[in-house]
Amino acid sequence: MTARLRARVLVVGMGGLGCPASIALARAGVGTLGIADDDDVDISNLHRQILYGESSVGAPKVEEAERVLRALAPKMEVERHGRLLPENALSLVSSYDLVIEGSDNFATKFLAADACMLQSTPIVHGAAVRWHGTALSVGASGGPCYRCLFEDLPAGAQEGCNEAGVIGPMVGVVGAIMADLALRSLEGRGQGTLATFDGSTGVLRSRCIARRRSCALCGDARSISGIEESRYVAQLCAPLRGHVMDTIVRIPAPLRTLTAGKEEVSGSGTTLAELIDDLEKKHPGLRDRLLDDKGVRRFVNIFLNEEDDIRFL
């Protein structure tokens, strides 16, 4: 049995980069493919997330990806995971032979880089924005690493694919390069390789980069020796603050005259205040009955994604 057939590879981010990389790895005969993502399929991303179709819209990415990948490679094992977070990063990456990171935010990229270095797990990073894409292969020794190029999480908001845009075929090319680097790394080759692709000119460049001696992760006097939750959490949560909440409000009997007798109503917004405003537009008079001078009245339960009561958050 070859190393490839025994290999366990984790793909972090099942978006525009993770989709083509996963397909390439499945076709190449990887033994086990882990897929980590907590997002749902969005119709606006179908031009670049090639594992999904219109029938997948609204479904969890990992569920749809598993279905398609199993059909492509019936003998390959597929393992589903949620989002890579500080509390699970070390244990998750340690259970795989190699990680492919194609996430859309810097917090996850740095978290994956740090976790893989600490667990001596090879990793291939990838990114694509507009016409430009990059891929970096980092070996089990950790150097040269992601932090040799990008020292630390940037401050403030950063443009990603949704803000800056990306050409659909670009992510396919970069995803294929990432898969190639991953397969080479599984054979013990190509670590420290940085590949760049300019989609506007079709120029692909590949070079070996050197370890930065002052790097906090893999340098001579490394200062990162563990996963410090505060380093990542604020930026991991930042993208979620811009997401629209689809929220169910369960209406007590005395208020159902305002909702045409409905026991449950739904609203949306990026904050609880916007949610209440949306509900007021649909059901006039509801705002004053839901809120008092202290916030949401205690007899009203509000649940996010059918999980815990979020009145007091």
In terms of topology, how is this protein built?
Elements: H1 3-6, E1 8-12, H2 18-28, E2 32-36, H3 61-72, E3 77-81, H4 89-94, E4 98-101, H5 106-118, E5 123-129, E6 132-138, H6 146-149, H7 161-164, H8 168-186, E7 193-198, E8 203-208, H9 229-237, E9 245-250, E10 264-269, H10 272-282, H11 286-290, E11 291-292, E12 295-296, E13 301-304
Parallel strand pairs: 1-2, 1-4, 2-3, 4-5
Antiparallel strand pairs: 5-6, 6-7, 7-8, 9-10, 9-13, 11-12
Helix pairs in contact: 2-8, 5-9
Verbal overview:
The structure is a single chain. The protein has helices at residues 3-6, 18-28, 61-72, 89-94, 106-118, 146-149, 161-164, 168-186, 229-237, 272-282, 286-290; strands spanning 8-12, 32-36, 77-81, 98-101, 123-129, 132-138, 193-198, 203-208, 245-250, 264-269, 291-292, 295-296, 301-304. It has 313 residues and is of the alpha/beta class. The strands form three sheets. The protein has an eight-stranded mixed β-sheet, with helices on both faces. A three-stranded antiparallel β-sheet has the order 10-9-13, with helices on one face. Helix 2 crosses helix 8 (168-186) and helix 5 (106-118) runs antiparallel to helix 9 (229-237). Mean pLDDT is 85; it is low at 238-243.
